[in-house]
Every structure is written in C-alpha cells, then in structure tokens.
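Cytochrome c oxidase accessory protein FixG, pasting as requested.
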Amino acid sequence: MPTTTHSKKTTAAAVAAGAVPADEVMVSLYQAQKKIYPRSVTGLFAKWRWFFVYATQIFFYGLPWLQWGERQAVLFDLDTRRFYIFGLVLYPQDVIYLSGILIISAMLLFLFTAVAGRQWCGYACPQTVYTEIYLWIEKKIEGDRSARMRLDAAPMSAAKFTRKALKQLAWIAVGLWTGFTFVGYFTPIHELALHFVQWTLGPWELFWIFFYGFATYGNAGYMREQVCKYMCPYARFQSAMFDKDTLIVTYDTARGEPRGARSRKTDHRAAGLGDCVDCTLCVQVCPTGIDIREGLQYECISCAACIDVCNGVMDKVGYPRGLIRYSTENALAQGWSGRQILRHVLRPRVLIYSGILAALTIALFSSLILRTPFKVDIVRDRATLARIVDGSKIENVYRVQIMNATEKPQTYQISVSGLQGIQLVTEPRVTVAAAEGLWVPVRLQLPYEGAKPGSHEIHIDVKSEQTGQVSEKSVFIVPR
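Structure tokens follow.
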C-alpha cells in the first residue's frame, strides 16, 4: 500500500533519479500564495460597494462625536459600568439585551445568506470595507494594477522607496485613526482627544489604539483575501445555509462556453464559440483571486466586481449583458426569469428564519419598552443576622442598592410587606442622581411575639412615581 510523505515541494527529478520511491506521494503542507493585484472596476455594483464604504465609515467614525444632552450619545463606559445608547442607560445586569442583539444579528445574517448569499461580505463586512479603503490609497499612490506590478518587480530606487513610504504612512494613519475611534466608544472621545493632544493617554487606552490600529493595518493592508479565505469562519459554514435557490454570483456556462478570443467581426456562433471572449478580466478584478467561470466557490464574497467588468466587455463586443450575473443554480438550470427567481425566495428555510427573527425582535423591543428604568438589589447585613432592640422588638438590617437608569434624578419610596406588624424604621424616601447607584441602609423591626422563630419571606418594595415599582424578595430572621 503506498505511503504518504509530507514535503515543502514535489520534486519530479528526485523520483526520476530514484531518491524517492515511485509509490510515495509528496504532499505540500503549505500552499504558496501569490500577491493579488485587483484591477480597478466601474459599474453599478462598484458604486454600491462605495456607498456602503461611505455609509459604514460615516457611522463608525462619526457616532462617537455625537452628543446626547450633556454626554456622548453612544458610550460603553467600563469604569462606571454604564452603557449609554442614546436615551437608554444599561447596566451589567442588562447583558440579556446585548445577548438578544447578538442573537438577532446572527439570525439576520442567516436569513440574508439563505436569500442572497454572501452579499454582506461583498459590501458591508469591515474586512471588505477597509480593504477597499486601503486599495484606494494604494492605487492613488502607486497606480493601477499594471503600474503596481511593475513597481513591485522593479529594483529599489528613490522613487520606489518614496511611493512605498507614502503608502505605508497613509495606511498607518488610517489604522491609528480607526483604533482611536474604536477606543472612543469606551472612553469619552472628547476626553480621549484631549489626553492624546497632551500626551497623557493611559496605558490601556494606548494599548487598544495601537492594537486595533495594527489589526486594521495588517488585515486590510496585507492579509486581505487571506482573512476571507482562511480566517473567517463564515466562509466555512456558509454552505450549510445555501441551497439551489440562494442568490449567488454565477457564470452562465451554457451561454459562455466554449470560450475563446475572437475579433469583433467574427460570427462566434458560426465559429463554435460561446459569448465568453476569455479576456480573464473577471479574474483580474476579483479581490480573492478566483475564476468565477469554474463555478460556485467558497472564496467568492459576492462583491460582483466580475459582473461589472464582464458587462463592460459585453457592451464593447456587442453581446447581451448578464454572462456573469446574480442568479441561482435552479434559475440557471431551468432558465428562469427574474420574477420566477423572486417567487422562489419564500421557501421553508426563509420562512423559518423570518419567523424566528420576527419573534426575537418583538420580544427584545417589548422587553426594552416595558422594562422598569431602575434596578434594586438587596444584601443582608452579614455582621448581625438579627438583634433585639428596645427590649421588645426584633431588628434585621439590610443594604438596598438602587440604580437609577434614567437621565434625571429620581426619588424612590421604600416599603416592606410579608409579615404582619413589620415596620420600616429608616427614612423611606431616598433620591438617586441621574444614571447613578446608591446603597441605602434599611432597618426592619418586628414585635418580639410577631412571628415564630426561623426564617420568614418578606418583600421590600421600591417605588417611583415616574418610573414604576420593583419588588425584591428577602428573608426576615427571628432568633430562637
């Protein structure tokens, strides 16, 4: 039985010379990667990609600077453990809402993938967006595809060094600005900018600015398609969400094959040729370097650059557009029209995803609307479980934490129920500042003969006239 040996490269000469037995197979552990030089492309889908670049970056870079009253509109303040999202103030105890948002985002991605494939990857994924930005900078400084290839192949010179240095400086600047903005979501960005100007940034702020900046610089400047092909898990499990009615970038094999070069005057049908002129431009514009004519591949991110460039070629040679287009496997096999494709969108998988997504969204927003905008936590005084005071009463001491999740100071009324004759002997009214928490000592007393010895369930109620009431359960201990 033949054995398998691992090596960096296969050497046919070694087999011929007898150095390696003929029944052994040399398998490379690593695939050599060539740098991809995507060609510039114009067209409808290229405009859509740049629309999403502008939209996402205006949102990302601009949102931290937006003010809401006297504070930052969106701020995840880890120091004070407050999460501000416009008029909403959340505490760590509200992590359920964050979990709900993540689950809804995942379901939305599943639904969109089942309907339209990897268009999220091709248009709005941060990896795609920043790669577009970094490629734009590279093209502006080093030129288009052919110019960049010639520059990389040329020996080092003053002109080459200058262009490369300018590109690196621009890339680093974008990366650092991205890292600065990212940290601005966790540290008030106006304070962060002041600390940056004064060179008084804290160690963690400095670390995360450089870490996130370096990640942006490395992923968008160098790794690019490697992130999409090897690092992103979405590329691996997307096939579980695809079916033959999923909208993908497709090459019409029946129309395009056999491919081949020809002049404009040639009757390609008479010559036995399909519509594909084998210009390879669809490969040259692909950011992941694949050939869409080889069929559906997991590396395809549905950016539609090949559609734009192929439509341009079809216009030049006088053939109909759509040799490469958004379609489905069933549509290609059965020759469906656009309306027929749309009619197959509402299939069981899509309906199930839509139902789950709708239910989760309604539940999340209903919970947010109905939530009481303050939290109450009760802790018994561990120093004394129970004590006798005034000779005839039993007293238990508690610490009640009231967290005001509104943007205004609130006054709360504390009361107790659950045992006949139990009384609150501390001040029942407390005021808590806006978006702050306050620990309030609470003393409860019960007549000595008011209950049997043991632990008795009680309820401490905290009520606000403006924002509702919260009732928390605790126990009152009667000593033996």
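Note for the archive: The mean pLDDT is 88.
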